Fold this sequence. Notes:
CATH class of the largest domain: Mainly Alpha
Oligomer: single chain
CATH topology of the largest domain: Trigger factor, domain 2
Amino acid sequence: MKSDIKDVKGxxxxxxxxxxxxxxxxxxxxxxxxxxxxxxxxxxxKGKVPRQIIERKYGDSLQADLVDELLNIFFKKAVEENxxxxxxxxxxxxxxxxEHGCFQFKAEVxxxxxxxxxNYTGLKLEKExxxxxxxxxxxTIELLREQKAHIKPTTNKSAEGNIIEGDIQAIxxxxxxxxxxxxxxxSFEIGKPPLGDILQDQLIGLKPGDEKRxxxxxxxxxxxxxxxxxxxxxxxKFVYEKTLPELNEKFIKQIGxxxxxxxFKQDIRKKLQERNENEAREKMKYTIRxxxxxxxxxxxxSSMVERTMDYLWEEHKRKNKNVKESEKDKFKDENNAQVxxxxxxxxxxxxIIENENLTVSPNELEAKIDEIAxxxxxxxxxxxxxxxxxxxxxxxxxxxxxEKIMNFIIDNSKVKEVKKKTPKKKSSxxxxx
Length: 433
């Protein structure tokens, strides 16, 4: 067998193969024997039909099967001998038997793009610095107190700060119930979002058993200046009083192993600062990805994009049972840019790993598992068992390797610290300890 490989694109190769006559005859004999074993012709026992009769009766089928065998066997052989790693099924463009009995065919095959990643060191990066304020610490403490709040039912009229629970029936402007729009056991904290602040005046002064018409303003998306009013009948089931715990040693012991309130506040500040650091680093990583994708331009094989998109679509359908097949095109349009970006980054990062000989050793992997187990609120044995699963361990290894890539790039870049300019979002609940 002779094979000639040519590059069509960075991700496509052309393969031209010539199979000598004796190899063709060998495969023809195998095809003939297969037919001889299975065909039945009147006057002959099965397996004893003469060759000339089989060829006369099944000539076209014999030839078609021979071509299939030659293509399957020698395409695979050509790919292996030339160390080609296809990412999709090869496409046969042309085939023929020449006058000497040799078989020739041409094929195209898609492979991973051959890329040479440039300019991934010496980047100019900005790291946003955001100092934790006293208000953020106080807000976080309030959120933690909210988590530990004591709730008890009351027969008193509802007041600001109470939680009120009941069934809600949508009605039209005349008070007629709208079928199919009843919501069971919905609750509001009077004075707080969502809705408890907007409906505060309507919710105050109610007791269990009361019914109250609620007029809920809904912004009109088409005309931002207009407000649409939806009407509901609210049947009160419970009113609860909420009492927040005092900020004292008893409270902080419920949160973590703290000796005093100052230590508790310092730990909250530390956790908030770590959050800010993580957010700044994630933003840098996002910037690095975009820079390298922009600076290293290459095409992706269409089959690679399609295969990934099909996988994501099947996952989307599995998680959302009501999804219709007619929504697939819209789904693909919405996710196409992200899929291409992710695939390009994967190829770029793989090349950097190869260039810099980055690895995660078994000891590093086990140390990370041990760290996760010790810091987790779950039973450490469950964590260790989870990572005994090869797939889970592989995903952790990939995450550690990706972190090594980012560490390498950042360590070899010029990083300038800048003060964060964007408005601060409200503190999320951070549990110290």
